[in-house]
Amino acid sequence: MLRTLCRAGGALLKQSQCTAPRLWITPAQQRWASSLPMNTVVLFVPQQEAWVVERMGRFHRILEPGLNFLIPLLDRVRYVQSLKEIVIDVPEQSAVSLDNVTLQIDGVLYLRILDPFKASYGVEDPEYAVTQLAQTTMRSELGKLTLDKVFRERECLNSNIVHSINQASDDWGIRCLRYEIKDIHVPPRVKESMQMQVEAERKKRATVLESEGTREAAINVAEGQKQAQILASEGEKAENINKAAGEAQAIMAKAEAKAKAICVLSEALTEHNGNAAASLSVAEQYVSAFSNLAKESNTILLPSNSGDITGMVTQAMSIYGTLAKTNQKAAVEKKSEEHVKQSTSTQ
User: Fold this and answer.
1) Pairing of β 42-45 and β 86-96
2) DSSP readout, 107-131?
3) How far apart are CA 162 and CA 164, in angstroms?
């Protein structure tokens, strides 16, 4: 008996698909529902579909997927709602941005029915209502943004449209999952001005980069010159220091050599016939100095007794003797002071 009812239900279902009226007439609205099945007592509801049943013209219940039983003549399947995610193309429309630029924008809307009862009895044509709501919301949101922000804040614009649609569609049992803007068309003149702006921006960045490169090159050259001057001054400083050190060492060497020569000379003078040797040396230097006077200058100043070599030598030796006595006296005083200091320290 059950097999016979199922076969009869299947035949009537096929016949109803050809003859029964649809919920929405337009082809775009047929995606919302399958064909209305007839009451065959035993009904099999497909997965991801909700069949709204009326009993005597009043809502009775919603059939779940699987096997269901209805009362003939009293029960009627009034609406068939698809619970799958639905994709709706939002037609292209014109909108005016905040800076008075007319744009042509279209999009794609992703929906899902959450409450079949509200979707059936809350609105007459859900797809048309949601489409119109998406278009009006899009125009409203675009009026708050300038043209540049429309391209930069597309993600924010999509989220605002989804939020506005969900606030209005809660009473319809419909949930907007996503909204995506497909294309944004701007007027040709605005497009040309945007291209000119992009080219100007690129030229500006190129000029800035070139000036920065020139500045970096000038800074590098100045740094190089600075380092070169510093190194040159340090080298000159080191050269002067080395030169001064060399001159100081040379002076010290000359002084030490002269001191040694004086010591040797003093020792030689203390020996036998030392005064005679000193007189001979002074006489030789006197003669040598007079022989070079005429070679260095044409003007010569001579003492009155320039021919008296013996007198000059005697005068030089007397000066030397006075200096020698002074040195000997100073040496004796120094030795006596040292002797007194040693005796004091011994006591």
Assistant:
1) unpaired
2) EEEEEEES-HHHHHHS-S-HHHHHH
3) 6
- Which tens digits make up the pLDDT trace of 101-157? 888 888 899 988 888 898 888 888 888 888 888 888 888 888 888 888 888 888 888
DSSP SS3 for 33: coil
d(CA 154, CA 242): 75
Q: Give dist(CA 347, CA 334) in Å, integer.
A: 20
First to last CA, the chain: 154
Q: How far apart are CA 118 and CA 120, in angstroms?
A: 5
- What are 219's two structure tokens? 């800074």
- CA 17 to chain centroid, in Å, comes to 66
Q: In 22-101, which ranges are E strands? A: 42-45, 49-55, 58-63, 66-69, 75-82, 86-96
Dist CA 85 CA 108 (whole Å): 13
Of 200, 126, 226, 224, nearest in space to 168 by CA? 126
- Answer yes or no: are the C-beta atoms of 9 and 42 closer than 8 Å: yes
pTM above 0.70, yes or no: no
3-class DSSP state for residue 272? coil
Sign of the C-alpha dihedral computed for residues 335, 337, 341 and 343 taken in this order? positive
Output the six-digit token pair for 311. Answer: 């007198």
Distance CA 119, CA 33 (A): 11
**Which of these, 142, 208, 217, lies nearest to 181 by C-alpha position?**
142
Candidates 93, 88, 85, 159; CA nearest to 130 is: 88
